[in-house]
Amino acid sequence: MPIALYPGSFDPIHNGHIDIAERAARLFERVVVAVYDSPSSKRLLFSTDERLALATASLSHIANAQVMAYRGLTVDIAHEIGATAIVRGLRATSDYEYESQLALTNKALAPDLDAVMLITNLRYAYLSASILKEVAALGGDISRWTPPMVREALLKRFT
Ligand code: ADP
User: Fold this and answer.
1) Residues contacting ligand 1 via CB (< 6 Å)
2) Is the pLDDT of residue 18 over 90?
3) Which tens digits make up the pLDDT trace of 88-119?
4) C-alpha torsion 143→123→18→37, nearest 10
């Protein structure tokens, strides 16, 4: 039965990510949510350990999901864990452009792996980690978009 890798920054994990992980867990025997360790091109709010802890706690209700941190090429970690698919979430057409470029690059690097794009849940179609952080920083109510522990971590960071 196939294993899927769901990679991302998860800075921090939110309900849009969790929805994708839950749905991927219904399609695959096992889903490994992989938290990208220190992407050099991105300014992150949370450390890798913090992002890992928040993702692990937020996904603990999914029996066939596990969370890990990784460095290097996504296709390498996919091979290491025996995955046949890389899961990503798609919100708008703007996501499609980036995700298709990423998927085609990964396909060139590792032809044995397939990209599986899951369309966002309509409830979270506008949600991104950066918007979430901005609303939290400005004191807005973010409880509808995050599990309580993620909300607390954001509140703590911004007070
Ligand atoms: P990255 O830095 O790799 O883009 P993110 O943590 O921002 O990582 O997102 C990880 C994956 O989750 C990406 O495929 C992204 O498109 C998807 N995603 C982010 N927000 C949502 C959302 N609201 N609904 C569905 N998928 C989402």
Assistant:
1) 8-10, 16-17, 20, 88-89, 91, 95, 120, 124, 127-129
2) yes
3) 999 988 899 999 999 999 999 999 999 999 99
4) -80
